[in-house]
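Q: Structure tokens for this one, please.
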Amino acid sequence: MRKFFSIFAILIFSLSTAAASSFDTFFTERTLRIDYIFSGNASMQIVALDELTSFEGWAGRRINLDKIPVKGNGELKLIDPVSKAIIYRTSFSSLFQEWVVTDEASKLNKSFEFTILTPLPKSEVLAEITLYDNEGNIQTTLTHSIQPNDKLIRNFDSRSAIGHEYIMHNGSPAECIDIAIMAEGYTAEEMDIFMQDARTACEEIFSYEPFASFKKRFNVVAVKNVSKHSDVSVPQDNVWRETAMNSNFMTFYSPRYLTTNSVHLIHDNLTGVAYEHLIILANTDTYGGGGIYNSYTLTTAHNPQFKPVVVHEFGHSFGALADEYFYEHEDHAANTYKLGYEPWEQNITSLVDFDSKWKDMLDKKSEIPTEPTEKRKKNYTVGVYEGGGYLTKGMYRPAVVCRMRDNEATQFCPVCQRAIKRMIQYYTEQQ
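A: Here is the predicted structure, written as tokens:
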């Protein structure tokens, strides 16, 4: 038994050493920020490089550099031009790709900002960014060279650090997943209120499994971005305000969809902070929010539904989870999924490739579809329940209730918990 544990310890040490060597071979201890512009319409999309910046320190992962946990609606690869090997890879979704399937996109060209952080390479790399449609087909691709000694990579080291305070600190950025909670619509006089709101959001998220069990793998920092005006813009009430992140309701003309297209400004507002994942708290009692995978969570802090909503939206932006609710009427999101294609999110299925989802978690006697009985609702019983991804028919979810379906749920369903756990492991364990 002692010999087995010795071999196991050597194996773990070897894996971690190999992972560190891989990072040290290709990258420095600096962050490269790549700002893009996504533009076009329903039938034609373009990706354009906007600007490159760099700053001291790297808060992202140092393992699984050439792997992605889920496909997402987009992907960035850093490629060694000599060996053609992928040395860094990340997946994401964007507000632009949500907009492309709206009615407006069939009539109008628009542009959206997007930002990706990578470690700064030691030598030239090729950056290949690809956007996919909702059937997994390539919409557009851009490949461009990055020279780390390029004089036009803007250096942010001299910028003054934004005021910030750690709510939870369990290790260095190299050891932990770093979450930044940002103030939006809080004036300088309201920072004490923001800090309380940030603590509430942190406490609520880490009261849910599997976040609670993996709490020691996270750092959470509150970033005190000051806004000129209190509250945020509410176009449905004809109210526009000057705030740190330029957020507003009525995204895609949906009154409760709160987002910002000023993505580059978000990252400007994080100067001097170690961060990977973003939660933006809006100082308003108007109901709403939004969460976009590997982009940001933005939610209202003073609505009675604040606690369940911030957890739900973080399920999107961190956990890469889909909405499990659906509409009985037409909605702006109704065209998000196609029934002939298996969605990349782990908590909904069109049954096109159910083997890749939660089939292994079903009771052998489970019927497909599964009847949503009251007992199954109370027990969070895993099944295949029709309705999900905004569609009443042809799309299925794993539980009758879940934090990704309704605000009354007291937990993530078992399938969502597994998906989040896998994401945490992807960032913190060599695979």
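A few notes: The chain has three domains: 24-155, 164-317, 365-428. The longest strand covers residues 27-40.
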